[in-house]
Amino acid sequence: MKVLVFVDYHDQKEYYKSLSKKAEYADLILGAGDYSMFGNNLRKIMKDFDNFGKPCLFIHGNHESEEEMIESTKGLKNIKWIHKEIVKKGDYKILGYGGGGFERRNEEFEAFVKKEKVDDKTILLVHGPPYETIQDTVYPGMHSGNISYKEFIREKQPGLVICGHIHETAGLSQTIGKTIILNPGPEGVLLDL
Questions:
Q1: DSSP assignment of 65-111
Q2: Fewest CB atoms within 10 Å of the CB: 42, 116, 149, 186?
Q3: What CATH number did the domain enclosing 39 receive?
């Protein structure tokens, strides 16, 4: 399965062409939030992504509210908003948890994933990065990531974590145990799973 993953698009039209080309080869598209600038133009942005004609599983970032995502994706054929949902696609299970990017811990997330069976075919889709990873480091020693995400990764070892929020770490990946953590950035990355 080929999966296009991206984050932090922020209505920057220059990235649309890159995403559109990569979407041609994708079986599935995963978006990790911040499609807009504070919710502006969100419905149009979602319609543009819907026009890719591929199944899209999206969560919101800190630039979109839950209500805005519900409204902006209403009636669209290819986009499913999966905040606090678990979706099966082929052999893979995607855990979607949107919003955030600023909190150090998230008890609601911890409750959401607590009893979930996780293996190397599990993908965690979050907006903010896990704590003390390369994805949350802007300056040496300064971290803004989420400890709850990091503990989940260490304990459960999902196969893949897609995150963003920190623009300076776009394109960076690292591995913790068996888990690959990736900030795909706004141009997106096409993964062959």
A1: -HHHHHHHHTT-SSEEE-TTEEEEETTEEEEEE-S-SS-S--HHHHH
A2: 116
A3: 3.60.21.10
What is the pTM for the complete model shown?
Answer: 0.96
Range of the structural domain that residue 142 is part of: 2-192
Which residues, 6 or more positions from 170, have their beta carbon under 8 angstroms from its beta carbon? 7, 8, 164, 183, 184, 185, 186
What lies within 8 Å, CB to CB, of 104 at 6+ separation is 131, 146, 147
E-assigned strand segments in the chain: 2-6, 28-31, 56-58, 79-81, 85-89, 92-97, 122-126, 137-139, 142-143, 160-162, 173-176, 179-182, 189-192
- Number of domains forming the structure of the chain: 1
Query: Which amino acid type is present at position 188?
Result: G
CB-facing half-sphere around the CA of 68: CA atoms within 13 A: 23
Q: Residue 21, SS3?
A: helix
